[in-house]
Design a protein that fits this description.
This protein is mostly helical. 78% of the residues lie in helices and 0% in strands. It has helices spanning 3-17, 19-33, 40-59, 76-103, 111-122, 127-151, 156-169, 177-194, 198-217, 219-237. Helix 3 runs parallel beside helix 6 and helix 8 runs antiparallel to helix 9 (198-217). The longest helix has 28 residues, at 76-103.
Length: 240
Amino acid sequence: MKREYWIILIVYIAMQLSSLIGIPGMMFLFGYLGMNQGLVVPYWLIFSFTLALVIILFLLRTEMKKPGLNERGSSFGFAATWAVFGVFLALFAQGLAANIERLIGVEMGSENTQQILNIIESFPLAILVSSVIGPILEEIVFRKIIFGTLHKRFNFFLSALISSVIFALAHMEPQHILLYSAMGFTFAFLYVKTKHILVPIFAHVAMNTLVVVIQSVYKDEIDEIIREAEGIQNFIGGFL
């Protein structure tokens, strides 16, 4: 693996762990200045994610002219078509995995997603982290670097499996490992299919944005659907 890739992984991990020091420090600063401490988390997320993205893009500046997998990238039209189709493919994979999880007894809903929605509700600008900056960082780290490095040595399935499981575990919701892994597989497929990292980035950004918007606008309706689905699952479970 290239030296720049190792540095990028370190920067990404440091960004994820930075809240352990950054948030308490900012809490003290906001309290000292008499500012609203309720905005500490979204402020820190925006700052840390943006800083990490700037550093990572700087480290990749010499590779930005290359498509990705050390091969000639597909045509713009082909890549654009798969970028748009990839959004629906990712949503389908997510929905399929969610239904499988529900059938095997995994509770519907994601604490991670709910926390993000709560942050966005308190500070709407935080949607930049969940819908733009976060997906870009994840595609660079998990698809371009981890999957791309593995794919040079192993076949697609094994490379996608390993990188997708790592991607899933990084979300700190092991009960939804199937859900996140399905998404990781989809984005890895888009990367290999088009040889353009911008394709899975677009699909990931669009999917996250769509999910956030839908869950924000139709929050009450979605909660009711989840409650009804859990009720049906419990009813069926009583006969098994």
